[in-house]
Design goal:
The chain is an alpha/beta fold and about 180 residues long. It has one domain: Flavin prenyltransferase-like (Rossmann fold, 3-Layer(aba) Sandwich), CATH 3.40.50. It is about 35% helix and about 15% strand. It has a five-stranded parallel beta sheet, sandwiched between helices. Strand 1, helix 1 and strand 2 form a beta-alpha-beta unit. The protein starts with 15 loop residues before the first strand and ends with a helix. The N terminus is likely disordered. It comes from Streptomyces olivochromogenes. This is Flavoprotein.
Length: about 180
């Protein structure tokens, strides 16, 4: 199991995972990642990009996690709805989010959370969902390289495009948690 970073968390029960969800069609199945995380003894809170919020069943995810979905900044003085994260999984991660994050842009709660998590040395796993055409763009390649250089753990890119057999592969939700497992 993932070892918590003591200076980051203030909770003693289960380690807390932030799941950042971006606007990609596979986001409709984010509950699969949440279920797997809960089976591996994680407590989960979901942060969606503003566009990503419309790509999955928000009420069902809130019921599954027992927490509100966050998509916007909280007002000054409002309580924090989540404890500090022990780890962050970005799944699915889009071209837009990867590029803005690598540039240090924090114009959404999701991006601000990712930028801050890096500064707090919180482990971050990314499952990109980026088409072949967008993945060929030099900005994307440079952004992935920069984030990897910052210690961000990337899974294989999922293009959503049919393979040689004409079928689409299943999005590898559990790989995000595998990337967060302790490294020997």
């Amino acid at each position: 199991m993932f070892t918590r970073v003591p200076h980051v968390t203030g909770h003693a029960e289960k380690p807390f995972l932030y799941v950042v969800v971006c606007a990609a069609g596979v986001a409709r199945d984010v509950s699969k990642l949440i279920t797997t995380a809960q089976e591996r003894s994680w407590a989960v809170g979901v942060i969606a990009t503003p566009q990503g919020l419309g790509f999955f069943d928000a009420p069902a995810v809130e019921a599954q996690t027992g927490r509100p979905i966050r998509s916007a900044w909280r007002a000054p003085g409002d309580p924090r709805p989540f404890p500090a994260p022990d780890a962050v999984a970005v799944a699915p991660a889009t071209f837009n989010t990867v590029n803005k994050w690598a540039a240090g842009i924090s114009d959404t709660l999701a991006l601000g959370t990712l930028n801050e998590a890096y500064g707090l040395d919180v482990p971050i796993a990314v499952l990109p969902c980026v088409s072949d055409a967008l993945a060929a763009h030099p900005a994307y390649r440079g952004s992935v390289e920069r984030l990897r250089g910052m210690g961000v753990r990337f899974g294989d890119r999922y293009s959503g495009e049919p393979g040689e057999d004409g079928l689409r592969a299943e999005f590898p939700w559990g790989a995000a948690l595998d990337l967060l497992a302790p490294r020997a």
